Amino acid sequence: MEVVTNPIGFNQGSPVQGKDFPGTIKKFHREGGRLYFDADNSKLEVRVISDEILRFRFNQDYFARDFSYAIDPAIVEKAVRAEVTENEINYILETAAIRVLINKLNLQIRIETLTGEVICEDENGYHWEPNAGYGGNYVYCSKHIQTNEVFYGLGDKPCDLNLRGKRFLNWGTDTYGFAKEQDPLYRNIPFYYGLHDGMGYGLFFDNSYQTFFDFGFENPSIASFWAEGGEMCYYFIAGPELLRVAENFTQLTGRPELPPLWALGYQQSKWSYYPESMVREIASEFRTREIPCDVIHLDIDYMDGYRCFTWDKERFPDPPKMIDDLKKEASKLY
Fold this sequence. Notes:
Layout: E1 25-31, E2 34-39, E3 43-48, E4 53-59, H1 73-77, E5 84-86, E6 90-94, E7 98-103, E8 109-113, E9 118-130, E10 137-144, E11 150-153, E12 167-170, E13 191-196, E14 199-205, E15 211-215, E16 222-227, E17 232-238, H2 242-253, E18 267-268, H3 276-288, E19 295-296, H4 319-331
């Protein structure tokens, strides 16, 4: 799929033809746990979810209902109250873990340690342009790549573990038999880790439109992410340890229940097992050879015409009986 717009390749602080930028901050105010920075052409809402997790949400005129399929709403509502100071150049927000500087001139964001080391810093930061095809706007964010910085994440990507120097499309597609470097694939998680100088962080782009990520592919010094519509809304998660980032990310998105005991056992799977007689034979062979097996995956060939929630009545004439018989056979082992 062709990438239709290029959000990077421009100089720091300079306007980009065809792009719109927030402009100068005119007003700062607070509404409960939400911090608002109103600029000439845009608004920024900041929520301090914890000392290590902050949400940055941009829009041109007003913010729609605050809702996300990806985020545990209970976590977001437990925002930490944070004090904001200012100097001639920046508004300054500080937690027990990090310091955030928001530039008054252009709404660009710099996140650093409490001793001043840069963790993550905007290049041109947030900007947008009209999307005639879908209505609304393309929304972009570009950041400086720090010296020796590496990137990981985004879900299933058949390439090097370090994503630096690559560009990706996050859009779920059934890509059987994929090859190295092929993109996009099945699973798409708009979350990545950055790591440099012993400082790790995470960035989750909470946007359900088709999204793109560029880690220095177009310009070796710039990392960027953008979407074909919706808001520029992202969560920054400070480390410095990547395991700490992962822990906070799962806290943000919600953690699963413990799996059932059988799910921790051996599971037998290949493309498909059919008909029913083959499934029974495989189960019998595992028992005969005294190999533990708790699950057999049937895959798509059990379906009627590959339609979900159906059974092929010729291959599997009585699924409930088959499952019950297999269960009885398993119970003999305990």
